[in-house]
């Protein structure tokens, strides 16, 4: 572990990513499903665009001209690995939307020992990792035709996450984040409890489920799932893009537009939750917004309180939201950031206990290998005990880690 000369606390990142090894599902699915289950095929790309918040790749046929990459094939889905999935180690101006193979990515993207080595370089002790091929809340399996196979794929991913990615080789430094079958809240509750029994304290969920064709959280449909999270102390983790619709302004808006306003879905989602009544219905429930940043939060809380105070009579919340939204936020919601100097200058308006740190490895936005330097520059005005809480203590308490910041499946 690299601790040279710095007094900056060892980082616990609540938002990194894993690129799943090619054999995750082929090793774990029943034999009769392996031909239909997710598998890797090497093929050229015919065309690939990312406009208006929509990623549209088209796989070419063997022998076609075009760059060759590794593609996930699953039912009718053809999804390539891209440089944006794993961009660390490349100069920012060299990062393009292009297909790649496993050999062309940094091994820490998919290999546990290599990941730990890259964490050492970056002053990171522990990390919670979101998926890549399943997408950020497992919507790949929700959109599939065969939900019997989809459920097996969800469980196979979770078994790999707990037993291998976060297994003995990780020495407690990788923190499990599991998936649920989003199409069935009862099955989702079962999966939450199955994983909680082996020490998992975080589950991925969609920031805006109706964008996936699923019920909103204003319904009672999700109550079995939310009850399981409430009972087991499982945090509902929502990553930007977990609704499969990144914010944009037009179909021809360049990716830079969406990249600037990525926090918007988190903003909309947080207001949904604060006005849903679910935090009063499930008093132990906690939610976190990965990669949403935090600087926008103070105004939204101010506005939500005004609306609740002045408009709740006709606003549809008087019978279910009985306390100011800002109070509910303080008890139930966590914002996650990796580069937000403005938010750090306004911690008093956000809440010191509601802020978590992240590095976003291995994505193009990642601060790797300088997450410590970025943190030192942006938190230099804060007292050491405040920095300790942001960088470590809040995550330890939220995710049920050991006092020294490690995951122990027996806890």
UniProtKB/TrEMBL annotation:
| Entries under Pfam families matching the protein | Amidohydro_2
| Organism domain of life | Bacteria
Provide the Gene Ontology terms for cellular component: cytoplasm
Residues annotated as domain Amidohydrolase-related: 106-401
One GO biological process this protein is involved in is: secondary metabolic process
Q: Name one GO molecular function term.
A: hydrolase activity
Question: Is-annotated flag, keyword Hydrolase?
Answer: yes
Q: Which InterPro entries match?
A: ACMSD, Amidohydro-rel, Metal_Hydrolase
Q: Which keywords has UniProt assigned to this entry?
A: Hydrolase, Lyase
Recorded protein name is: Amidohydrolase
Provenance organism: Streptomyces coeruleorubidus
